[in-house]
Amino acid sequence: MSVAGELVVIGGGLIGAALAWGAARAGADVTLLDEGDIAFRASRGNFGLVWLQGKGLGHPDYMHWSIRAGRRWPELARILGEESGIDIGWRGGGGLHFCCSAEEMEQRRALIARTRAEAADISIELLDREALRERAPGIGPQVLGASLSDLDGEVSPLFALRAFHEGLVRHGGRLRTNFSAREIRRDPHRGFAIRDASGAEVTGRRIVIAAGLGADALARQIGLEPRLMPERGQIVVTDRVAPFLHHPASAIRQSREGTVLLGSTHEDAGFSTATEVEAIARLCRIGTRLFPALRSARLVRAWAALRIMTPDGLPIYDESPEMPGAFLVTCHSGVTLASLHALDLGPALARGDLGPAPRSMRSARLAVHPT
Predict the structure, then answer these.
(1) Nearest CA to 350 among 27, 18, 93?
(2) CA distances for 227 relative to 244, 328, 363, 366, angstroms
(3) Which of 37, 193, 205, 282 has its CA 20 to 30 A from that of 107?
(4) 290 is in which domain, residue-wise?
(5) What is the pLDDT of residues 160-191, one digit of tens each?
(6) Predicted TM-score (pTM) of this structure
(7) pLDDT by residue (tens digit) across 188-203?
(8) Total structural domains in the chain?
């Protein structure tokens, strides 16, 4: 059965859901196609950080795009909470990157200096051990200090995803689950037709491919070549312990419920989502070095998920030159950039364009040129 619509977003993960919500909120007739639990759902393995420290160094467009996202997160969290009644776990106030050696402290000083040279609209300060102990009293003896960024924060990716899905429906959009898009073709009367593995079909005047690692095969059908690669990340979580960490950090964060997340790895493991004892042990060693009291906590779960990586690590925002009205959106920073995807890019796609998305992030930059 074919369902006609104005805009069809392929991919019901955090990127696609944010775009669909934003477009529906702007008044577009939106259908969101979600593959369901069989998908490589990146939000299952996302650490939940809105993270700006060091992001985009050497790539000014990406840096300023990310900083803009960080500034819009409080607004997005407020709107999602008011609309859905779901506490998405948003907490701002800055994030910590711990340093356990003099060399690491010097590296952070250099990063802060480069950031100040490239972007004046983000504040990062370097805390020495004494200043850090005022914010995190339980740090271990090897921790010499930390950098603190004013825009960093945290959120629960899965609660945010649920809020986007529910908000989409509230704004009149359609959420179609268990739809595994396989084929895209032009439809002379309705724009585009998307067919799934079972032969079911959905049509729309415009489409957005936001299907994570599944976007590669679909993008080729509209003449784009993103060359996406999987990166495995493993995370471990402890049982609930008394509150001790009130800022998210690059390697550790404590949820509102009291559990402690330790992570995450960056591995080239193909499409494997298996966990490995050695990686889990390494994450636990890092966590207990930062906060020795965690040695008494119990490890209750470990899991792995796949991130979506482009060859240069930057997002892709593109429209097919062969099939105008067919767009591709993909990135590995689905949490950090969710505010812009929802509040800026979704409404732009509702109008039929990429709005404020930087032109330097088109997929043509990744073209393989003969030597």
Answers:
(1) 27
(2) 42, 12, 9, 8
(3) 282
(4) 229-309
(5) 999 999 999 999 999 999 999 999 999 888 89
(6) 0.94
(7) 888 999 999 899 999 9
(8) 3
